[in-house]
Design a protein that fits this description.
This protein has 4 helices and 6 strands, in the order H-H-E-E-H-E-E-E-E-H. By secondary structure, the chain is of the alpha+beta class. It has a single domain, classed as Nuclear Transport Factor 2, Chain: A, CATH 3.10.450.50. It has a 6-stranded mixed beta sheet. Strand 5 and strand 6 form a beta hairpin. The protein is globular, with a radius of gyration of 15 Å. The N and C termini lie far apart (41 Å).
């Protein structure tokens, strides 16, 4: 924690990873959303169409109802801090899970580049395997 009592970017990223390991409950999902700034911008460039989430309220709205629709667990994580920008943390991680509605499973590799200011995630660039997720959800390979 910084001298001002605000979590450092790495501490926020570590908490994000911890919550992603257990995110299959409403309580942990809510705590995960709380890590984001009110005016967060999340870019999801590999989604089709490209995804963009503006604001924590929108993120909370999008995650509502996720528990039960998707069972996922973070399998491993490596955190990298940017030497030239202390606000930036890169998280490489695996996700394995199942989609109960289809009975299909997925196993993906992911990268999230987050910018943390004042103890909250202010900006995030999320790179996920949307083809694998779409196939597990029954959307086909072009999702």
């Amino acid at each position: 924690m910084s001298a001002e009592g605000v979590r450092t970017p790495r501490e926020v990223a570590e908490e994000w990873v911890r919550l992603r390991r257990e995110w299959n409950t409403e309580e942990t999902l809510k705590a995960l959303v709380e890590l984001y700034a009110d005016d967060v911008v999340i870019d999801v460039p590999f989604a089709k169409p490209r995804g963009r989430v503006e604001g924590r309220a929108r993120l909370e709205e999008m995650t509502r109802g996720t528990v039960g629709r998707l069972r996922a667990r973070l399998t491993d994580a490596v955190l990298h801090t940017a030497a030239d920008d202390p606000e930036v943390v890169v998280v490489e991680f695996g996700t394995q899970g199942e989609v109960p509605a289809t009975g299909r499973s997925f196993d993906t590799r992911n990268v999230v580049v987050m910018r943390v200011r004042d103890g909250r995630i202010a900006e995030s660039h999320d790179y996920h395997d949307h083809v694998a997720l779409g196939e597990a959800m029954g959307a086909g390979a072009d999702h």
